[in-house]
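User: Thanks for the earlier help. One more: Thiosulfate sulfurtransferase GlpE. Can you show the sequence and predicted structure together?

Assistant: Of course, both are below.
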Amino acid sequence: MATREVVLADIRDPQSYALGHIPGAVRLSNENLHEFILEQDQQQPVIVVCYHGVSSQGAARYLVEQGFAEVYSLDGGFTSWQQYQPDQVAQNHAGRD
């Protein structure tokens, strides 16, 4: 991530995302999935983030099936990220992202 521009797609629920997420992450849900697929550059790498790195594997496979060239699941999910990168956690404040 430090050397390449990637898209971070956070598939956790809205409340969990608001309480903390990786800076720059887009919350991806059933409501905006179609728009994400249509608008996102499918050649740009995507890292899918969930709670513990399990659900994101299925979501990553789905994005590959939709034509995305390079999709990854974040090992350990946001829980691991927050533990090892506590200074790299953003929160929503007063409805802002």
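User: Great, one quick takeaway?

Assistant: The domain at 10-85 is CATH 3.40.250.10 (Oxidized Rhodanese; domain 1).
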